[in-house]
Write a structure and sequence with these properties.
This is Nucleolin 2-like. With 81 residues, the chain is α+β, with helices and mostly antiparallel strands. The protein contains three helices and three strands.
């Protein structure tokens, strides 16, 4: 029993990797790519911004933001709220 308890208290190695793309919602219907890049610039390099739109070109209020690294995406998550 002691061995099982020792194993559960052992530090687990950190997982490497993770997603570089974040889902952003509740966006303004007038937002553009540069607004999103400016908002996330302190987190890291924004590689791509995909804002969802309807066939008539109006925005749906959500999109995806891809960062250069998973670390930058993780930093961007800290900006939530």
């Amino acid at each position: 029993m002691v061995n099982a308890e020792q194993k559960s208290n052992a530090k687990q190695p950190k997982k490497q990797g993770g997603s570089k793309t974040l889902f952003a919602y509740n966006l303004s219907f007038r937002i553009n790519r540069s607004d999103i890049e400016d908002f996330f610039k302190e987190a890291g390099e924004v590689v791509d911004v995909r804002i969802a739109s309807r066939e008539d070109g109006t925005l749906k209020g959500f999109g995806h933001v891809e960062f250069a690294s998973a670390d930058a995406a993780h930093k961007a998550l800290q900006l939530n709220g």
